[in-house]
Amino acid sequence: MGTEFLKIMDFEEVREIINNIKIKKEVEEVFLEDAYRRVLAKDIHAEIDLPPFNRASRDGYAVIVEDTFGASEDNPVTLKLTEMVRAGESPSKKVEKGTCIEVSTGAPVPEGANGVVMVEFTENKNGNIYIYKSAPHGQYIAPRGSDISKGDLLLKSGTLITHDKTGVLGAIGVENVPVFKKPKVAVISTGDEIIKPGEKLQYGNIYDINSLTLSNAVKNSGCVPIYSGVAKDNYDDLKSKIEEHLDADVIITSGGTSAGAGDVLRAVLDDMGEVLVHGIAVKPGKPTMIGIIKEKPVFGLPGYPVAALMVFHIFVSSFLREMASLPDNKKSDMLRLRISRRFYSSRGRHQYAFVKVENGIAYPILKDSGAITAVAEADGYFEIPKNVEIVEEGSEIEVIPLEVF
Amino acid sequence: MGTEFLKIMDFEEVREIINNIKIKKEVEEVFLEDAYRRVLAKDIHAEIDLPPFNRASRDGYAVIVEDTFGASEDNPVTLKLTEMVRAGESPSKKVEKGTCIEVSTGAPVPEGANGVVMVEFTENKNGNIYIYKSAPHGQYIAPRGSDISKGDLLLKSGTLITHDKTGVLGAIGVENVPVFKKPKVAVISTGDEIIKPGEKLQYGNIYDINSLTLSNAVKNSGCVPIYSGVAKDNYDDLKSKIEEHLDADVIITSGGTSAGAGDVLRAVLDDMGEVLVHGIAVKPGKPTMIGIIKEKPVFGLPGYPVAALMVFHIFVSSFLREMASLPDNKKSDMLRLRISRRFYSSRGRHQYAFVKVENGIAYPILKDSGAITAVAEADGYFEIPKNVEIVEEGSEIEVIPLEVF
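Output (structure tokens, whole complex):
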């Protein structure tokens, strides 16, 4: 007859238990080219000044500004051109009184100069530069270190390295980036009838759905899935699959959790470690199991694809994102949408339902949790608190997208 | 003195020109394991029924329900057990009147049976099964094809293959998935002073920022960046770099677009193809150039990192997402936030500014477009329409995040 549920726990109680699972964060270094979408594990201080030299910000002439005072279109000042410095070059001369040096945008401003006159306000007559406008002190010079001084804190530990931040790291010459290691998550499906996609479908078999869905959901949570295949629904097979994958940081199984003849995960957890949760007052997802084996959390999700996916989103994804040091995206991505029809919920249980979103309206998907078509149509899901029995047509609900691109 | 701007165009005019650039979409097949985050290029019809057989949805006994009518706790019905079928197995017998066959959840329901009694309401006494509760017709049987019938349209062309959809494809046995090819985007930086990260910084050099930033921004837009290095700021070098990368679908350059001595992209575009845009009434980004060479669009972004990144977001990312068949995320990801201080804008130009977001408040970053620290702090940006000169402190603005995880 199988084991009984440990005790049906409330949603909040389970969240609390998950929050108390110890997380170990490890750091590794990756090349800058590979740092995109990783999370910084240390504060990044600038290793150089930026700009690294006094930099011309316009094409023109580096001058001693006092030489240009009083210059106008009718009454130009004439300066002797002594050199030309393009971006990437080094000046060999200084700017001295009565002279100027031509500079391109991005070129170093030669010593002695304290301003740049734009080329548009000048004329070159045989090496004599006519200046038609006087330059204020410091004009068109970005002084060394004016953007960043060597040693400045530029990016904090915990920062997501989005595309823009990769450029910031490049700018200050970072080659190896300290990031948090991506946690490894073993994904195991259980069930005697389940075969891998690509295998021949015999009578009585169905294709594995959960390994694919959960592996990619693990990626979307900032972790690395380890596709661990299908375990038969018996003690020995599941136990050896779990033993094989204890080098992962987290193990996720699906199937084999219900309080029936097929309940083997419970027995494996009882023997190898500890059961923290078996049975949650949520719908779908009641037979969910959570345990610990050798300090590794094991999430035992229901076998039905809809339930497995929902429980992943409700309980597992925030945990994995926390492990991966990613922000929990639920709050920020939430959409406030109107519901297309009246929706009934079970009193006493937190309920979750998938919705299809079309033209800003949320259509609840009313299919049982075995229905893969429910997943095919889903764009997101919403929560119905346990004391709510009816959500009225047209009322506003908070939809959490399954994934954001 | 370099070329003049072609003509300063309005924001809307440029958008229109970009919308009219011809896009060619190609299709390829990828393995299901590689289909995550790709975009379906064909409608997907189910190749099998789901479930593929009449499937038991509880552990129990497959019965002829008429045999159980009248059964109660005080007055059980007794049926002879003839076989046991676990998930993944095939029944060898039929259920006949007065008999039953034990089934596990997920097992095929044997012929003859028209309902399943849950194990909880039965007792097995030496092969005689006592049934304590009558079963309604069809109970706990998911009939073949009840979820999906072979041939049903399951996922439409254009669907993003999010993690949940990978499971749907697996469920119906899809092994090779038709998806849109990811467009290839060559990213070229220009500038004589620019060196690659990792090279030794000599006096007068600065590290390349834009190649990194833009390459990863290209990834975030669903395309494949081709890192094409740094071109010197002269006609021959830039031309040969562009020629080298005409096998890409799009070319993005940065630098070398301003109307000054360094303006070489304009000359290359004039010779090799056609200039569509040179000069836009936006801030930052005025010297932006757009052209076509052999039907390949070329986006010439400003050299300053802040301006290059902003112009990418304003004009290029939607175009790339359209090419990659991804949804334009700007609208859906937008956050309505209050601005921390009064913000002044230039009349007659669309203006864009980066903001840092903290505790739900948007802090505009008031730094010039050469400042990499502006990018280091940025979380998103907002638009100030061209007829607005002042955004008042505390008013609501629409912030578009730079990237969503």
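Chain B has a mean pLDDT of 92.
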